[in-house]
Write a structure and sequence with these properties.
With about 425 residues, this protein is of the alpha+beta class. The chain has eight helices and 20 strands. About 30% of the residues are buried.
């Protein structure tokens, strides 16, 4: 008989199986302590490995994040000088019992000057000039040209520059505009012989000045410690008879020095979009290579220029006062150009106003090709406003232009003489760059 018909066989769903459940025994105190120690050891090992990995990878992360680049550049600020500022005059002495001329004559005739006297006078000047010369650099202007046979030729010009400021990322050097004009490369040699690459920060064709930048990371500590940062002084305080020292290239060679005195100060000399003071001295000065005048405090008070000479001053050295260029130098130091309108003029005096002329700047010359010339402003017009700001003095004109960005659009209002009256005309002008 088939096995399935056996009566003693039980169905599958009624079969019984033995089920077992394994129960873990609780950990002993020794096991708990051992596992805790093992976990702590593994944590310490992982921490050491993570710290080591962070230290090794940190330079890579900083490089990717740009931390090895130069720090963010800080702005240069140059305080302005008041045009009315002047050295305080000594109090008037009491009337002497005998004429002062006689006292001086008696004192000079009775005193015998010696070499020691001369040395006591000359030594402080020499020491001051020697210290200031550490702030003078040689600016190499490199131009790549070709000769008659189309062979490449490198022409290099050597100009004097003065270190006038430092920021967190660079040193700023004041030099002549000729030193950077059309230069394919610029190299700067400091007073201790260290050479570094320079870049043109900005130039100003009207003043003939320029700023060259040298990165701090390209200058070693020895050079930085030996360098002198020259201060821009107050040229409005310079008077006839004041002693001055010329540094830079007064003899046509960088790092030359000369001594002299101010023979004459011309005030309110008209220039494009302003006026300046010009000092005439008896010392030597080379304008194209860069010569700077120092006062007895070692501050730069003038820059030698070949402009502003006439037949009566051909034998004198002319220097433009530095105070009139501080706003322009500040903008150049920050990489900005100064706005240019392109006019010369003189202030309307109170007497002229009484005769019926409007208050403002009487325009004596409009520079050909300038924004003012292209707009239609003419000689004889009187500048009265730039945008909504009235202009009464040449210094106000300079200040308003210094606060404008080159390429910005402005409204210039002039008064033009018509039949028996002045009529105001408005011009929309896009100011250029100096």
């Amino acid at each position: 008989m088939p096995e399935m018909n056996r009566p003693d066989r039980e169905p599958d769903d009624k079969r019984q199986f033995i089920k077992e459940k394994i129960v873990k025994q609780p950990l002993t105190r020794r096991q708990i302590a051992g596992r805790a120690a093992m976990m702590g050891g593994m944590g310490a090992v992982f921490g050491v490995v993570a710290a080591a990995a962070f230290v090794l990878a940190c330079p890579l992360f900083e490089s990717c994040a740009g931390r090895n680049e130069q720090p963010e550049e800080s702005l240069v600020s140059i305080p302005r000088d008041e045009a009315t500022a002047a050295a305080s005059e000594p109090a008037a002495p009491e009337e002497p019992s005998e004429p002062i001329e006689q006292q001086v004559e008696d004192a000079v005739s009775s005193y015998r000057f010696t070499i020691d006297d001369y040395s006591r006078i000359h030594t402080p000047l020499r020491d001051m000039a020697t210290a200031a010369d550490k702030g003078i650099v040689t600016v190499h202007s490199v131009r790549h040209e070709t000769d008659w046979f189309n062979n490449p030729v490198e022409n290099t010009g050597y100009f004097a520059g003065a270190v006038i400021a430092e920021t967190s990322s660079e040193y700023l050097i004041l030099t002549t505009e000729e030193a950077v004009a059309e230069a394919d490369a610029i190299r700067v040699t400091f007073s201790n012989g260290t050479e570094a690459a320079g870049t043109k920060k900005q130039e100003d064709r009207i003043s003939g000045l320029a700023i060259v930048s040298v990165r701090r990371i390209d200058i070693d500590d020895s050079t930085a410690n030996s360098m002198e940062i020259l201060t821009l002084g107050n040229s409005y305080q310079m008077k006839m008879g004041d002693m001055v020292v010329a540094i830079g290239s007064p003899m046509g060679v960088v790092h030359s020095i000369d001594y002299g005195a101010v023979g004459y100060v011309a005030r309110n000399v008209p220039v494009t979009d302003g006026s300046i003071r010009v000092m005439y001295t008896d010392l030597k000065g080379n304008a194209s290579l860069g010569t700077f005048l120092l006062n007895l405090s070692g501050e730069i008070v003038g820059v030698v220029t070949d402009e502003y000479k006439n037949e009566n001053t051909q034998n004198a050295t002319a220097a433009a006062g530095i105070s009139d260029f501080k706003g322009i130098i500040e903008r150049m130091s920050n990489g900005l150009s100064t706005a240019c309108l392109g006019i010369q003029g003189q202030e309307i005096t109170a007497e002229m106003e009484e005769q019926g002329l409007p208050s403002g700047i009487y325009i004596t010359e409009v520079t050909a090709g300038s924004p003012a010339y292209e707009a239609g402003i003419q000689n004889g017009d009187i500048l009265v406003r730039i945008n909504s700001g009235e202009v009464h003095t040449v210094k106000e004109l300079q200040s308003r232009l210094e606060n404008l960005e080159a390429g910005s659009a402005v409204t210039v209002t002039v008064a033009r003489n018509s039949i028996n009256e002045y009529r105001e005309l408005e011009y929309q002008i896009t100011v250029g760059a100096r």
